[in-house]
Amino acid sequence: MLPTPGGDGPHRPGGLRVGPLDLAARVDEALRVQAVAFGLSDEEVAIRRYIVQRHMTCRGARALGAYTEDDALAGFVYGMPNDRDHWWSTVVEPYLRTGGHEGWLDGSFVITELHVHPGFQGHGVGRELITRITDAAAEPRSILSAIDTDSPARALYRALGYTDLARRVYFPSASLPYAVMGAPLPLRRP
């Protein structure tokens, strides 16, 4: 369990280190962060464990982590060059086509997951993770999906230059609609 950062304690957000993450080796720790940040059940975590491990074998997949001083994972991001044959693309493609944005599926780096432990949110950790991973992308743009509601995550994406490409996107087994967002790279800086 991660400690809650204190204003002057050893685990304050400013003390985090962002660097490469061997997500396949630390998948359980990353999914614990995601479960707390996203409210996942044990069953959902088990399903996502398989998905994450499969994704990390894809061409160009990479991950970054935000680490506390004692090397605990406080947040992570991972993504890869988009592939139209991947499940996510096959689900979002009809929605993007309807809005005239199908071309975003080509030449894009997809942010597959970005999660920060709630104790470390609101301090720029998510911003640093997503900008650092997309800065290393060879693709000229980035796409992602987020729950289609006004949330701190969507506000962050908008501040970075992401715009809505499709709204009310329904993924099988997801009860809430998602938005697909895209941004040119490099992402906008404050």
Quick recap:
The chain has helices at residues 27-38, 42-55, 87-98, 125-135, 152-159; strands at 17-20, 62-67, 73-81, 108-116, 141-147, 163-169, 178-184. It is an alpha+beta fold.
Secondary structure blueprint with pairings:
Elements: E1 17-20, H1 27-38, H2 42-55, E2 62-67, E3 73-81, H3 87-98, E4 108-116, H4 125-135, E5 141-147, H5 152-159, E6 163-169, E7 178-184
Parallel strand pairs: 4-5
Antiparallel strand pairs: 1-2, 2-3, 3-4, 5-7, 6-7
What does this structure look like?
There is one protein chain. The protein is an alpha+beta fold. The protein is 30% helix and 26% strand. The protein is built from 5 helices and 7 strands. The chain has a 7-stranded mixed beta sheet with strand order 1-2-3-4-5-7-6. A hairpin with a 5-residue loop joins strand 2 and strand 3. Helix 1 packs across helix 2. It is globular. It starts with 16 loop residues before the first strand and ends in a 6-residue tail after the last strand. 35% of the residues are buried.
What low-confidence regions span 5 or more consecutive residues with pLDDT below 50?
1-12
The mean pLDDT is 92
The neighbouring-strand order within the major sheet is: 1-2-3-4-5-7-6
Question: Helix amount, in percent?
Answer: 25-40%
Radius of gyration over C-alpha positions, nearest whole angstrom? 16 Å
Percentage of residues in strands: 25-35%
Our count of helices gives 5
> What structural class do you assign from the helix and strand content?
alpha+beta
Based on CA inertia axes, which overall geometry fits? globular
* Terminal Cα span: 32 Å
What string, H for helix and E for strand, traces the elements in order? EHHEEHEHEHEE
Largest sheet: 7 strands, mixed
Number of strands: 7
